[in-house]
Amino acid sequence: MRRRWAYGLIRRCPTPAPSYGSAEWLALADDDPGKVAGCVVAAECWAQAGDTLEDDLRYEVEAARLAYKRAEDADYRARAAEHRARYGSVAQVVSLADRQRRASLPRQGDHPGGPVRWNGGPS
Fold it and tell me: How far is CA 29 from CA 23, 24, 41, 95, in A?
């Protein structure tokens, strides 16, 4: 209903209406169909923005979320590549038997076992 009324007023102007508030619009007489059409065009733009506000906001929020996610994913990939370059592949699978065998081998600095010599001193 609103749109039909608005487009009826806009069609009364024989030439394209000047933009609301422009110097051309200000120069028109108040009863000029171009001045009325300029007002109605501006009002209709504002009304249509209100009609689609929820969808527009949803689109903006989704676009911002996707941009944040892309940046977060790019940062993750960069950090993962840096980690792989620094520490190498972690995909080496070592069996339980091999880990147990390695754990039983003496390491440098380990006590070789047997009695420990005590020199007397505080315990």
Answer: 12, 11, 17, 91
Instruction: Say what the pLDDT of residue 61 is.
Output: 97
Under 8 Å between Cβ of 36 and 10: no
Residue 73 placed within a domain: yes
The CA distance from 110 to 112, in Å, is 6
98: domain range? 56-103
pLDDT score of 79: 95
Does residue 62 register a pLDDT over 70?
yes
What predicted TM-score, i.e. pTM, was given to this entire model? Answer: 0.42
Instruction: Report the alpha-carbon distance of residue 117 to residue 102 in Å, rounded.
Output: 28
